[in-house]
C-alpha cells in the first residue's frame, strides 16, 4: 500500500512513519506542516491527486489545548477545515482517511468509561474542533480516538514529569482527572493494523490501566527508580494558575470496538512506560 501520513514530524506521526516504513510491503509518504499546509485546499488537493495514496493517515492537528481557547478560528481552520480538505482529496482518489481524534470530544461527566457510541459533548474549543474534524469524514473512513499520548518524540507528560523531578524535591498533580495513558509507538502499531485490515468506523485506541494524573506521575517516578512519594495530590479547582481550557474529569476510553471485534488490546501502560523511560535514559 501507498500510505500518506500527515504530521509526520510529530509525536505520533514519526512513530507511524517508522511503523509503516519498517514493512517492505508499504510505501510511505510522510509530510509535515513545512511540506503541506493542510489548511490550503489547493495544496492538499494537488498533493493527494499527485501521490494518489491507497490510504491517508491523519494525525496532524493543533493540539495546544489552552491556546485553542483564545484562537478558535485557528483551531477550527487546522483541525476541522484541514480535515475537510484531506477528506475531499481522499474522495477524489478513492482512499479512506484514518483520522486521529481525542478524548476531549466528551465532556468527562460519565461515571464509567466512554464507549465509541456514546454521545459526544466537548467542553473546550480544542475538543469541538476535533469533533468537527470527525464530522468531515466519509462513512468509509476511520476515526481513532486516543488520550494522554506520550512518546519518545516531542513534548509530553512523561518528559515533563522527569524534568520536574530533576528540578524539584516535591511535585503536585491533580487526582480528580482520570484517563488511559497511551504511548505513541503502541498507538502507531494499532493504527497500522486498522489501515492494513481496512477497518472503518470509530475506534478507541489507548493503552490499558485507568489512572489519575497524580497516580500516573507516581508511576513515572517509580519507572525511573525515583521515590513516588515525592508526588502529592491536588484538586483541579486548586490549580494555580487555573487552566484556560476545561479538562474532562473522566477521559477513560473503553476500547470496546476493538475488544468486541476480537482484537487484542494494547498493553497496560506500565509496560510501554518502562520501555520509554529506559529509552529516554539511554
How is the topology of this model organized?
Layout: E1 2-5, H1 11-21, E2 27-30, H2 41-51, E3 55-58, H3 65-70, H4 72-93, E4 97-102, H5 125-134, E5 142-146, E6 149-150, H6 157-167, E7 171-174, E8 178-179, E9 182-183, H7 184-196, E10 201-204, E11 211-212, H8 213-223, E12 231-234, E13 250-251, H9 256-260, H10 270-281
Parallel strand pairs: 1-2, 1-3, 3-4, 4-5, 5-10, 6-9, 7-12, 8-13
Antiparallel strand pairs: 8-11
Helix pairs in contact: 1-7, 2-4, 4-5
Structure summarized in a few sentences:
This protein is of the alpha/beta class.
Shape: globular
Strand order of the largest sheet: 2-1-3-4-5-10
Number of strands: 13
Radius of gyration: 18 Å
CATH T-level fold name: Rossmann fold
**DSSP summary: helix tally:** 10
β-strand amount: 15-25%
Helicity level, as a percent range? 25-40%
The N- and C-terminal alpha carbons lie at a distance of: 34 Å
Main sheet, how many strands, which sense, barrel?
Answer: 6 strands, parallel
What is the CATH homologous superfamily assignment?
Answer: NAD(P)-binding Rossmann-like Domain
The helix-and-strand class reads: alpha/beta
Would you mind describing this structure in some detail?
The structure is a single chain. This protein has one domain: 3-Layer(aba) Sandwich (Rossmann fold). The protein is 40% helix and 16% strand. The chain contains ten helices and 13 strands. The strands form four sheets. It has a six-stranded parallel β-sheet with strand order 2-1-3-4-5-10, sandwiched between helices. Strands 11-8-13 form a three-stranded mixed β-sheet. The model has no long low-confidence stretch (mean pLDDT 96).
Amino acid at each position: 500500500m501507498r500510505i500518506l501520513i500527515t504530521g509526520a514530524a510529530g509525536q505520533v506521526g514519526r512513530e507511524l512513519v517508522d511503523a509503516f516504513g519498517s514493512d517492505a510491503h508499504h510505501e510511505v509518504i510522510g509530510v509535515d506542516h513545512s511540506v503541506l499546509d493542510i489548511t490550503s485546499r489547493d495544496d492538499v488537493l494537488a498533493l493527494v491527486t499527485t501521490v494518489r495514496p491507497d490510504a491517508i493517515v491523519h494525525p496532524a492537528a493543533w493540539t495546544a489545548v489552552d491556546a485553542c481557547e483564545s484562537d478558535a478560528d485557528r483551531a477550527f481552520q487546522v483541525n476541522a477545515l484541514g480535515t475537510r480538505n484531506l477528506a475531499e482529496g481522499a474522495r477524489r482518489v478513492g482512499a479512506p482517511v484514518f483520522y486521529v481524534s481525542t478524548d476531549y470530544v466528551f465532556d468527562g461527566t460519565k461515571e464509567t468509561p466512554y464507549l465509541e457510541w456514546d454521545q459526544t459533548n466537548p467542553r473546550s474549543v480544542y475538543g469541538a474542533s476535533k469533533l468537527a474534524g470527525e464530522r468531515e469524514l466519509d462513512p468509509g473512513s476511520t476515526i481513532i480516538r486516543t488520550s494522554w499520548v506520550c512518546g519518545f518524540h516531542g513534548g509530553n507528560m512523561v518528559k515533563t514529569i522527569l524534568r520536574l523531578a530533576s528540578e524539584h524535591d516535591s511535585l503536585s498533580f491533580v487526582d480528580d482527572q482520570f484517563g488511559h495513558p497511551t504511548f505513541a509507538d503502541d498507538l502507531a502499531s494499532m493504527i497500522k493494523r486498522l489501515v492494513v485490515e481496512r477497518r472503518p468506523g470509530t475506534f478507541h485506541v489507548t493503552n490499558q490501566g485507568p489512572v489519575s494524573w497524580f497516580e500516573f506521575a507516581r508511576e513515572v517516578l517509580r519507572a525511573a527508580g525515583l521515590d513516588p512519594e515525592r508526588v502529592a495530590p491536588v484538586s483541579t479547582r486548586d490549580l494555580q494558575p487555573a487552566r484556560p481550557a476545561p479538562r474532562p474529569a473522566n477521559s477513560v476510553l473503553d476500547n470496546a470496538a476493538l475488544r468486541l471485534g476480537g482484537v487484542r488490546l494494547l498493553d497496560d501502560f506500565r509496560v510501554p512506560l518502562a520501555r520509554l523511560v529506559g529509552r529516554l535514559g539511554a
